[in-house]
Amino acid sequence: MDAGTEAVGAQPVLRILGVEKTFGATVALGGVSFDLARGSVHALLGGNGSGKSTMIKILAGVYHADAGELELQGARLDARAMTPARAHAAGLRFVHQQQSTFPEMTVAENLAIGHGFDTDGLSRIRWRALRRRAREILDRYGIDADPRTELGRLSPASQAMVAIARALQDQDGEHEGVLVLDEPTASLPAGEVELLLSAIKRYAAAGQAILFVTHRLEEVLRAADRATVLRDGQVVTTVERAQMDHGSLVELIMGRRVEQALTEIHPVGGRGQVVMRAQGLAGGPIQEVSFAASAGEIVGLAGLLGSGRSSVLRMLFGAGPVEAGAIELDGRSVRFTQPRQAMAAGVAYTPEDRLSEAAFADMSVAENLGIATTGRYFRRGRLRHRAERRDARALAEAYHVKAASVEAPFSSMSGGNQQKVVLARWMRRDPRLLLLDEPTQGVDVGSRAEIWQLVRGAVEAGAAAIVVSSDMEELPRVCDRVLVLRDGRIAAEVGGAELTEERLNHLLLTPEVTR
Ligand SMILES: Nc1ncnc2c1ncn2[C@@H]1O[C@H](COP(=O)(O)OP(=O)(O)OP(=O)(O)O)[C@@H](O)[C@H]1O
Predict the structure, then answer these.
(1) Angle between helix 445-460 and helix 246-254 axes, rounded to 10 deg
(2) Which residue among 19, 21, 23, 400 is best mutated to probe the pocket of ligand 1, counting the most ligand atoms within 8 A of its Cβ?
(3) Once rounded to an integer, what is the mean pLDDT over residues 129-144?
(4) Alpha carbon of 49 to ligand 1 centroid (Å)
């Protein structure tokens, strides 16, 4: 970067001034102010429920602030009156975790969706022009892909880069606006994260201002020039790159020191009896999977997207088709065709997409906490609401769930808190087998350790856990052993001293590895 760019970098492209937002009794943002400089990657950090999503939704015009102003390239905007159209006109662009791209359409078509399809006088799409334009955009953003390729065939990082290019393609001038990325790396495996982070840094070096929301602090340390930390809707501080290290970021986010609890969770060794044994499982993307999980152990399932990780969990829960093979639970052969049969046998399952699959978004937190054990709250056919609420409050406290009240709707909670409720709900059934799909995705550093403590507690009490995760740093810390899935088969198993982040990444990214 030359001196000229350095000078431009200091100039704020966006100023957020005293933004306030309350939901009923909850102060989601209590007067948030910070500046975003041109040509920089600016991380927005904070624990679950600290206000990050609310801030972004106000920028996007999805929520109206109660007070505050935004200054974009010198023009003042009332934060109370933002709309998606105003946000767009002011140069704000958003890429969310769910990228809303279309994997079965080509790269060129995906780019055209954000821009419009050129047509001739007869309303026919000008395909050649479309592809040419796509080629230019791909070149501009350094994406190595053919416009005619189906998007779903690209690597996950390239797909994310196409989503970013799509968001930025119609910026009027060069790098005038702000790109907001909401947990863009959440479902990317490590090698891919690196690719996306370098692309992000490259775009910033070319002058783009980027606001980046993430819970993954290693990524902040690797890519961010600056970080603003929110806690309980207030800005704790904005730190420069030179002042950042993992420990101090954690302390700023949580407002307390967090012991490196994850390392303590690491297996104590000694497996108990086999809880679950799968033999020759096949169905959907699963070709042939055989493995066992014993009392006292956490077994990880790693694999690239599409490797069949989530399908294995769904099959064990009676929620995915089992075309061949056998499952034993505590030595007895079982064949679940419906989740309720699995639940009755002591199997717990938390899906990756918790809002649509796991929880009942319109029901209250208390109802959601109770739902897996509703039987407890029925007496002579009547639901004992008071008992349910009392227990829900105790649980919410025990699990540090942040919600306005246990009567608040589940959908009003922040993402990480929703995950805690879903887990807490299952834990109280004393499950035999826990099936957890990305249990800490979107969960803050403090709660992450708490969630793993919970899982470790359950397996120490005699359960077995099977965990799908894309986080190769976390898996070795919390699992006793990890199975690597590829194309619907177990390609490798690693445990003991061999179980390291490097080894897992190597196994994931090397095609020809045998067991
Ligand atoms: N639509 C809503 N209705 C009621 N309360 C809400 C709503 N949206 C957010 N909140 C509350 O505002 C606070 C801030 O939530 P927000 O989603 O902004 O947090 P976050 O920092 O994005 O959390 P996470 O890391 O878990 O995603 C929380 O207490 C949340 O429960």
Answers:
(1) 90
(2) 23
(3) 84
(4) 5
Q: How many CB atoms within 10 Å of residue 178?
A: 23
**Is the per-residue pLDDT at 264 higher than 50?**
no
Tokens of 282: 């096949």
- 23 pocket-lining for ligand 1 (C-beta < 6 Å): yes
Phi, psi of 307 (to 5 degrees): -80, -15
Answer yes or no: are the C-beta atoms of 145 and 110 closer than 8 Å. Answer: no
Residues 6+ apart with CB under 8 A from 324: 280, 281, 282, 283
The ipTM of this complex is 0.95
Q: From the CB of 441, is ligand 1 less than 6 Å away?
A: no
Q: Which of 426, 409, 405 is nearest to 361 (CA)?
A: 409
Give Cβ neighbours of residue 93 (< 8 Å, ≥ 6 apart). Answer: 167, 168, 171, 177, 178, 179, 180
Query: Cβ of 73: how many Cβ atoms within 10 Å?
Result: 17
One-letter amino acid for residue 202 of the chain = R
Sign of the Cα torsion 433, 301, 355, 460 reads: positive
How far apart are alpha carbons 144 and 142 in whole angstroms?
6
| 8-state DSSP, 185 | T
Does ligand 1 come within 6 angstroms of the Cβ of 341? no
DSSP 302-356: EE-TTSSHHHHHHHHTT-S---EEEEEETTEEE--SSHHHHHHTTEEEE-SSIII
Query: How far, in Å, from the CA of 259 to the mean position of ligand 1?
Result: 26
Question: In what side-by-side order are the strands of the sheet with 464-468?
Answer: 332-334, 324-329, 274-283, 286-294, 489-495, 481-486, 298-303, 464-468, 433-437, 347-350
Strands 67-72 and 75-78, by their bridges, are antiparallel
Q: What is the pLDDT of residues 453-498, one digit of tens each?
A: 888 888 988 999 999 998 888 899 899 999 999 888 999 999 988 9
Backbone angles phi, psi at 467, to 5 degrees: -125, 125
Q: How far apart are CA 193 and CA 187, in angstroms?
A: 9
For the CA of 21, the nearest atom of ligand 1: 12
pLDDT score for 158: 84
Top mutation candidate among 413, 419, 422, 451 for ligand 1, by most atoms within 8 Å of CB: 413
Residue 181 pairs with which residues in a beta bridge? 95, 212
Which of 469, 443, 515, 506 shows the shortest CA–CA distance to 300? 469
